[in-house]
Amino acid sequence: MNFLSDDSVASPTSRRALLQALTVAPVAALAVPASPWSDALAKLYEAHDDEPAILIRTRERRRLSRVRYHRAEDFMPDRWPRSLLGWHDLLYHAGITAQLGLSAHLLDVGFSDTWNARHIGLRVAKSLAYANATGFSHDCPDMARLALVLTPYWKWNRPRLFGEPEPDDGGFSPERVLPLLRALLDRVHDVTGHPRPRGWRRRGKEAL
Known about the structure:
Blueprint: H1 15-21, H2 38-48, H3 59-75, H4 87-109, H5 113-119, H6 124-133, H7 141-149, H8 174-192, H9 200-207
Helix pairs in contact: 3-4, 3-8, 4-6, 4-8, 6-7
């Protein structure tokens, strides 16, 4: 059973072969105890004191992965008029966008949505770390720095009372954030093989 489309990107370790190995057997579910990602994941589990995940690919997780990717494209801040998005709103939408996109990858490689909610939550930087440990291979220093700014992303959507200081935006600007998010979502599209949402090209032209 192969859930990947023909335009999936193959890594040096053959991402297609790895994911086929993690796909459930026709009868029920097959948990694969070892993979080339085991060492990298073990370090993350230990660093964060996380319960190890059992990676199992299913049609349902694949379907949910596609939904998450399409929702990430919907939340992409460049689809929203600048007049409606202040700087904090843009960062809040950026956090949702990044987390949905990374969630699409994690679901696709076999993490359960329950495990993600319990151990990752709204922490974009942690989501990116787990994604890169499982073949996402998006080693962009600026995106890693932005992920820290967006973690947890809810902080950009809460009122500041009694002189409470604003969160640190890391010196980013909309002109830098939007290309980083676009590159992240393009990577999700490439590695998962999910099709673009309907009207994606038209939306992009409207945003420009």
